[in-house]
């Protein structure tokens, strides 16, 4: 028997199997790395500049401790009447991955249910959780008896 009858260890079938295994491995790594990278890369506040003034409600309709949810352009916004009667307007977009935060009057904070970020309702700063920065603050004032918010 001579050496030319032995099977070729680097034939086309073996090359195809190696390529398929390598491709499958790369796909498996990507399927894990992409969501991990997405979790670790914050979206920021996501609020464009120059959003038009948007009517929230009549000034008399928002008592101390109450809130309103509105959209200013494409941005969900939470308008709060603080207990000292001042007004604040926060983007409701969590700065972690952009889920919508909710006001919790019992703890006077804004909570993101996606990964548990908590923001201070008075200042918008992050109290806990994975969000890297404060909520974006919108401008707000009372015009002719109506509360108006804009960016
Ligand atoms: S999106 Fe992750 S904590 Fe809000």
Describe this structure in words.
- The chain has 151 residues and is of the alpha+beta class.
- It folds into two domains: 3-40; 54-150, Rieske Iron-sulfur Protein (3-layer Sandwich).
- Helix content is 19%, strand content 31%.
- It contains one helix and ten strands; from the N terminus they run αββββββββββ.
- Strands 1-10-9-4-3-2 form a six-stranded antiparallel sheet, with no helix packed on it. The protein has a four-stranded antiparallel sheet with strand order 5-6-7-8, with no helix packed on it.
- A hairpin with a 2-residue loop joins β2 (67-72) and β3 (75-81).
- The longest helix has 29 residues, at 12-40.
- The radius of gyration is 27 Å and the shape is elongated.
- The mean pLDDT is 86.
- Bound molecules: FE2/S2 (inorganic) cluster.
Relative strand content: 25-35%
What spatial order of strands do you see in the largest sheet? 1-10-9-4-3-2
Stretches where pLDDT is under 50 for at least 5 consecutive residues are none
Any idea how many domains? 2
Average of pLDDT: 86
CATH fold name of the largest domain, please? Rieske Iron-sulfur Protein
Short description:
The protein is of the alpha+beta class and 151 residues long. The chain is built from 1 helix and 10 strands. 19% of the residues lie in helices and 31% in strands.
Can you tag this structure with a few keywords?
151 residues; alpha+beta; Rieske Iron-sulfur Protein; 2 domains; six-stranded antiparallel β-sheet; four-stranded antiparallel β-sheet; 1 helix; 10 strands; 31% strand; binds FE2/S2 (inorganic) cluster
């Amino acid at each position: 028997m001579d050496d030319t009858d032995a099977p070729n260890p680097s034939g086309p079938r073996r090359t195809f199997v190696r390529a398929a295994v390598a491709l499958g491995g790369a796909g498996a790594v990507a399927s894990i790395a992409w969501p991990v990278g997405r979790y670790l890369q914050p979206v920021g506040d996501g609020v464009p500049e120059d959003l038009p003034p948007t009517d929230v409600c009549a000034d008399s309709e928002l008592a101390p401790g109450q809130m309103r949810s509105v959209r200013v352009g494409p941005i969900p916004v939470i308008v709060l009447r603080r207990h000292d009667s001042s007004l604040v307007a926060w983007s409701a977009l969590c700065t972690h991955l952009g889920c919508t935060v909710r006001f919790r009057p019992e703890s006077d904070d804004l909570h993101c249910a996606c990964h548990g970020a908590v923001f201070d309702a008075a200042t918008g700063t992050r109290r806990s959780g994975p969000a890297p920065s404060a909520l974006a603050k919108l401008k707000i004032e009372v015009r002719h008896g109506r509360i108006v918010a804009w960016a």
